């Protein structure tokens, strides 16, 4: 029998499975586990949005939508971004609807990187950006910048050093803010300074702003304001409206760039389900402040979890947005974070995510998602405190 696996795409067979999902599956089999692993809101989608999806079905919106997305959704998204953040995009030519930001990232990486190009990624960060480059396997390369000694923020000096070393091979900079896994947010002045480093250079700035509505301590800042013509902006409805299962993302970019990204989208997806687009249109159009109650609850949870972990002995960067806390494993405990999370879940029935899953700078850390109830947070803290006392 022919061993066809040898003839699949080079490198793909050796690519590791997502360790976050693998561990989450393992933890789910443990009775009464408290899970701080999943990065999705534990709230329900607002009723007016659900009704919009039902209405679309009832009105037989069951045929192909335009490939770039329904005009109603594109206009609603553009209006939302303009009103909330002052981001100006033409819904006719500069907005694309994708299968979540997951597809937005893949489309952009595929469209904008060539063999030999370098994508610069500040880490720790959600691994999807780098996974896409590895899966495409077309000769593009990744250069990471460890931000763990800089408050988990990219500095202009470290970015400039990469440009000095690699020159015009650098083609893309990835920026995610608020950041997964740390919850760190940049100020507008900090983003302006980073933008100045790549301004007027042939470098795309991939700006993932999916957590833009979940900022606690300051207004949302955006590199789009600093560097509009070089930014590929990504947003969507998954986090702010608790619509992860609806799979609607938004890509915004200058027309000439968006046209190339849209070609990838047309090839791999064609278009998004029309009733889901109806729901997303309703979210952007009439749900301008829907996230406020959820954000207030997340902020309360953040404060309780942050204080509880600090009291136990964890060193944490206090998150300014999203719903994650990135905590350093206390001295005296297992410092290999990949081993630590399995020991913690086996002994204490508490599941967290290994920091090394988020690349350079994440080793020795663990990520908590506080998209869980306050009761679960308090119970998790109780179990962790007992675990630390028994294992130090």
Topology pattern, helix = H, strand = E:
HEHHEHEHEHEHEEEHHHEEHEEEH
Per CATH, the superfamily of the largest domain is Type I PLP-dependent aspartate aminotransferase-like (Major domain)
Helical segment count: 12
Count of folded domains:
2
CATH topology of the largest domain: Aspartate Aminotransferase, domain 2
Mean pLDDT: 96
CATH architecture grouping of the largest domain: 3-Layer(aba) Sandwich
Radius of gyration: 21 Å
Computed structural class: alpha/beta
- Main pleated-sheet profile: 7 strands, mixed
Shape: globular
Distance between the termini: 54 Å
- Unreliable stretches covering 5 or more consecutive residues: none
Share of residues in helices: 40-55%
Biggest sheet strand order reads 2-8-7-6-5-3-4
Instruction: Report strand %.
Output: 5-15%
Reading off the top of the CATH hierarchy, the class of the largest domain is best stated as Alpha Beta
What's the total number of strands? Answer: 13
Pfam families: Aminotran_1_2
Family: Belongs to the class-I pyridoxal-phosphate-dependent aminotransferase family.
Cofactor: pyridoxal 5'-phosphate
GO molecular function: transaminase activity
């Amino acid at each position: 029998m022919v061993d066809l696996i040898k003839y699949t795409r080079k490198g793909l067979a050796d690519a590791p499975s997502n360790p976050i999902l693998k561990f989450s599956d393992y933890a789910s089999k443990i009775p009464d586990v408290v899970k701080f692993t999943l990065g999705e809101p534990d709230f329900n989608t607002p009723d007016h949005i659900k009704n919009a999806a039902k209405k679309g079905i009832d009105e037989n919106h069951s045929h192909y939508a335009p490939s770039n997305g329904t005009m109603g959704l594109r206009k609603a998204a553009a209006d939302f971004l303009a009103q909330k953040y002052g981001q100006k995009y033409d819904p006719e030519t500069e907005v694309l609807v994708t299968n979540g930001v997951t597809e937005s990232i893949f489309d952009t990486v595929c469209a904008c990187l060539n063999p030999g190009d370098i994508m610069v990624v500040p880490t720790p960060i959600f691994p999807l950006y780098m996974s896409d480059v590895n899966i495409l396997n077309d000769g593009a390369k990744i250069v990471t910048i460890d931000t763990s000694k800089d408050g988990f923020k990219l500095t202009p000096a470290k970015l400039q050093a990469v440009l000095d070393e690699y020159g015009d091979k650098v083609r893309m900079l990835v920026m995610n803010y608020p950041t997964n896994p740390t919850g760190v947010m940049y100020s507008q002045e900090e983003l302006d300074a980073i933008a100045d480093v790549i301004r007027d250079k042939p470098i795309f700035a991939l700006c993932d702003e999916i957590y833009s509505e979940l900022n606690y301590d300051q207004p949302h800042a955006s590199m789009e304001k600093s560097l509009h013509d070089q930014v590929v902006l990504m947003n969507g409805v998954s986090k702010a409206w608790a619509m992860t299962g609806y799979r609607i993302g938004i890509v915004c970019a200058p027309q000439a760039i968006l046209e190339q990204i849209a070609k990838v989208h047309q090839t791999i997806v064609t278009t998004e389900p029309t009733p889901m687009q109806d729901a997303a249109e309703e979210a952007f159009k009439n749900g301008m402040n829907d996230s406020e109650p959820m954000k207030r609850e997340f902020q309360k949870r953040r404060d309780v979890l942050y204080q509880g972990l600090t009291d136990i002995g964890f060193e944490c960067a206090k998150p300014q947005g999203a719903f994650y806390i990135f905590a350093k494993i206390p001295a005296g405990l297992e410092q290999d974070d990949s081993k630590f999370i399995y020991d913690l879940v086996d002994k204490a029935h508490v599941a967290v995510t290994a920091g090394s899953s988020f690349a350079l700078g994440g080793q020795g850390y663990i990520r908590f998602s506080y998209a869980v109830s306050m009761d679960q947070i308090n119970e998790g803290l109780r179990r962790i405190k007992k675990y630390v006392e028994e294992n130090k």
